[in-house]
Design a protein that fits this description.
The complex is a heterodimer of chains A (407) and B (186).
Chain A (H helix, E strand, L loop, with lengths): L5 H8 L4 H7 L4 H9 L15 E3 L9 E4 L15 H6 L5 E3 L2 E3 L3 E4 L4 E4 L14 E8 L11 E8 L18 E8 L4 E10 L6 H4 L10 E4 L2 E5 L5 E5 L4 E5 L2 H4 L7 E8 L2 E10 L2 E9 L5 E8 L1 H5 L14 E3 L4 E2 L16 E2 L13 E9 L5 E8 L5 E7 L2 E5 L1
Parallel strand pairs in A: 10-14
Antiparallel strand pairs in A: 1-2, 2-19, 3-4, 4-5, 5-6, 7-8, 8-9, 9-10, 11-12, 12-13, 13-14, 15-16, 16-17, 17-18, 19-20, 21-25, 22-23, 23-24, 24-25
Helix pairs in contact in A: 1-3
Chain B lengths: L7 H11 L4 E5 L5 E5 H7 L1 H8 L8 E2 L5 H16 L4 H8 L11 H8 L3 H13 L3 H15 L4 H8 L7 H15 L3
Parallel strand pairs in B: 1-3
Antiparallel strand pairs in B: 1-2
Classes of the chains: A mainly beta (407), B mainly alpha (186).
Chain lengths: 407, 186
């Protein structure tokens, strides 16, 4: 095998999942050169394997939940007990990115139990008095930043509904030169950075004056650019390396569809940045998913009714799709470490959503369906489905037309 | 050698089928002779198709100095088996239109074909397939090798495939460190 031509080695290694490719860099020098030279290791697909996921969607309450197969989660402390009493007081998770957690005063790695403190927040940039802020974490575990990998925290301004600000209602927002503070874990300081808009604005101050339903507005860090879901559902793409930004209209708006009841959600998965729209049609949940292409246009990937799912939800915990998962939050802890299963979660053994929907007369009383997020490197979306009748909180995932159940 | 990888190949294949002999003789590095159907050779190997079309086939045995007799025997065996199995439309199109069709899972007989090979034989075959431009065989053999590597640590991979570790201890530690901050716990 030492003697195989480079092309063949690349052909073989290119078929492996990201975690194996990363391991193969340590087999021999030429392999590392091949993997790095041909970019076989997709740094943007990290985490290298999905052992579990944190979830900030509002379910029964607005806590953060952690879901993982019991065996995989043993090295991870989602309750952040290692921070001690003082740390626990601030243990509200405000953002997550590629396995790191951002709290109000620090960035934490729940797998390695390390953290770095943030320094005190800076004063607002000139002219920005009266704004609110959200903190966004940007972290690329491999590559785009010099090793050892560093993260950034962005202090992103929120247009307040009532406060007086120095901008009139018809001013473009963000302004053509957008100045924000960014904390770098390398320098451990907040720095003021200005970004110049490329292309057209997508809204004014007045358009942005919406309630801040924080859990639904997410940010994604992908290939050196930060994508933030703005208050008018547009997405701002901030290129951290070249001081430019551009605005991207929401796919729901772009296709001129009027969605009054539903949520637009931003996320990252296999091919990049995705937007999901969860709505109700004829009283049944309906999901659309778009992928952002390289020219910043939304491409519709999925347009599917979740009716079958709602009607056929397998409430039997012993069926073949059920697996034990941990559901940890600071309030609820179910340490159901029952099964030793060393393999990565098998997301492919779902069931298939049928094209035809039977006219069942069953009526489920639902609290509704909630979009949880995307699988980091497979085109799978996670939903929660809450049914009042049985009082069970269950979690589903969907892959194209496939559906399976995580219990 | 220029090999026409486009639509011309089907035409060349037809020409070949009309030629006098319907087999070609291939000669391994250690001088053994193998006969293979001209049609299958031209369909499955871009290099052989090019040689046949270019008239550089030697009736007394076309020299393939880079390929040993065991690997060549496997190549010929694969061509014959392939000719006997009825290729699906997808297979034909993937061997003609290059790099467009996504990888199709090995068929049952292809799986068996590579499963019975020793490691050395498999590596010789993958090299031969690469040299002869046999896209499908390369696909099947590379797939097999990647299956064997999945889930193994670097140490296990070196052991299974008999690969010499050319890293120093310090370098290995460095590679581990590159990923360590986020994903590994000591």
């Amino acid at each position: 095998m030492d003697l195989l031509p480079d092309d063949v080695v690349a052909n073989i290694l290119g078929r492996l999942p990201p975690c194996s490719v990363a391991g193969c860099r340590g087999v021999r020098r030429e392999w590392r050169a091949t993997i790095d030279g041909r970019r076989l290791l997709r740094a943007d697909l990290l985490p290298l394997r999905l052992d579990g996921f944190f979830c900030r969607a509002t379910l029964l309450d607005s806590q953060t939940y952690f879901f993982a197969p019991p065996s995989a989660a043993q090295g991870i402390d989602p309750r952040l007990d290692f921070l001690g009493e003082e740390g626990r007081d601030y243990a509200n998770i405000v953002d997550l990115c590629n396995g790191l957690l951002l709290l109000w005063d620090r960035v934490v790695n729940p797998a390695t139990r390390q953290w770095i403190p943030l320094t005190p927040f800076p004063r607002p940039c000139a002219g920005m008095e009266g704004f609110f802020y959200r903190l966004i974490l940007a972290y690329d575990p491999l590559g785009l930043m010099p090793p050892p990998p560093h993260c950034s925290v962005v202090r992103f301004p929120i247009v307040p509904i009532y406060n007086d600000i120095d901008f009139t209602d018809d001013s473009e927002w963000p302004p053509s030169t957008f100045t924000i503070h960014i904390f770098s874990s390398a320098q451990r300081v907040w720095q003021e950075r200005s970004f110049v808009r490329q292309g057209a604005p997508t809204g004014t101050i007045a358009d942005m004056r919406h309630e801040n339903d924080g859990c639904h507005r997410r940010a994604v860090f992908f290939r050196g650019a930060l994508y933030v879901h703005c208050q008018n559902n547009s997405v701002i793409r901030i290129a951290l390396s070249d001081n430019k930004y551009r605005m991207i209209t929401s796919p729901a708006t772009a296709e001129n569809q009027v969605f009054h009841h539903g949520h637009v959600c931003l996320g990252k998965s296999d091919k990049g940045v995705y937007s999901a729209f969860l709505s109700k049609e004829d009283e049944w949940p309906w999901c659309r998913v778009w992928l952002l292409d390289e020219s910043c246009h939304w491409v519709l990937k999925s347009n599917i009714s979740l009716r079958w799912l709602a009607q056929n939800f397998p409430f039997d915990n012993t069926d073949k799709y059920s697996r034990p998962w941990i559901n940890n939050s600071t309030k609820h802890v179910h340490q159901a470490r029952v099964v030793q299963d060393e393999s990565e979660w098998d997301f492919d053994s779902g069931v298939t959503l049928p094209d035809e929907i039977s006219d069942s007369t069953d009526v489920l009383i639902t609290y509704g369906t909630v979009f949880l997020g995307f699988h980091p490197y497979k085109e799978i979306a996670f939903f929660s489905y809450i049914q009042l009748k049985s009082g069970i909180l269950s979690f589903e995932y969907i892959k194209g037309p496939r559906v399976g159940r995580l219990n | 050698m220029e090999v026409d990888k486009g639509k011309g190949e089907a035409e060349e294949t037809r020409k070949v089928a009309e030629a006098d002999r319907d087999t070609v003789t291939l000669k391994s590095s250690d001088g053994k002779l193998f006969e293979v159907s001209k049609e299958a050779a031209a369909r499955l190997s871009t290099v052989l198709a090019g040689m046949i079309a270019g008239g550089s086939i030697d009736d007394n045995g076309t020299d393939l100095k880079q390929i040993g007799s065991e690997a060549l025997e496997n190549v010929v065996d694969y061509c014959n088996k392939h000719a006997n199995s009825i290729p699906s439309a997808a297979l034909i199109s993937s061997s003609i239109s290059f790099n467009t069709a996504p990888f199709k899972e090995p068929e049952e007989w292809e799986r068996k074909f590579v499963d019975r090979l020793s490691h050395d034989a498999l590596f010789d075959l993958v090299e031969a397939a690469n040299f002869l431009g046999m896209e499908r065989l390369l696909d099947v053999t590379c797939h097999k090798i990647s299956e064997m590597m999945k889930g193994k640590s670097p140490d296990q991979i070196r052991e299974v495939f008999n690969i010499k570790n050319d890293y120093t201890k310090e370098e290995l530690e460095e590679i581990r460190q590159e990923l360590a901050w986020a994903f590994y716990d000591d």
